[in-house]
């Protein structure tokens, strides 16, 4: 039981580290959170990137034009099966881009669905799917 609780805490810490890496633009840490065979996808868009370099490249391209972001995670649920795990959590992500005529903020909420693997360096994502559930504000903050 103690090992399971320790594993769940480490899995939740990986999810929080992902959010922090996005907001601090720490691309090295972000890449290190994924296994070499990991895939990242945005549900409903058909967008899928595999391998840490491709994943970080996609995220970096999307975030570098934005002045600030603030990602929050909650409602974590994790299930550990030996050296493999599933995790899900909700997110709210605030994006700010100064100087846009129709508004400088875009807020989105949704869910991460993850698979992780225990590695010598800790729990790492093997798959992360992002599902957007709602949004408000100016979509040009994240699209233009």
UniProtKB/TrEMBL annotation:
Give the signal sequence positions: none
InterPro entries noted in UniProt: NTF2-like_dom_sf, SnoaL-like
Gene3D superfamilies recorded:
3.10.450.50
Q: Which Pfam families match?
A: SnoaL_4
Q: Where is the SnoaL-like domain?
A: 3-129
What is this protein identified as?
Nuclear transport factor 2 family protein
Record the organism.
Streptomyces poriferorum
């Amino acid at each position: 039981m103690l090992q399971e609780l320790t594993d769940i805490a480490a899995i939740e810490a990986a999810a929080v580290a992902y959010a922090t890496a996005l907001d601090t633009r720490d691309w090295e840490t972000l890449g290190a959170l994924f296994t070499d065979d990991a895939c990242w996808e945005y549900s409903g868009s058909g967008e899928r990137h595999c391998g840490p370099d491709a994943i970080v490249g996609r995220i970096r391209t999307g975030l570098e034009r934005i002045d600030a972001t603030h990602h929050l995670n909650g409602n974590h649920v994790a299930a550990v099966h030996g050296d493999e795990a599933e995790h899900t959590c909700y997110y709210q992500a605030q994006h700010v881009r100064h100087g846009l005529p129709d508004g400088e903020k875009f807020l989105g909420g949704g869910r991460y669905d993850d698979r992780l693997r225990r590695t010598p360096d800790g729990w790492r994502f093997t798959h992360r799917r992002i599902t957007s559930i709602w949004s408000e504000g100016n979509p040009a903050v994240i699209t233009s």
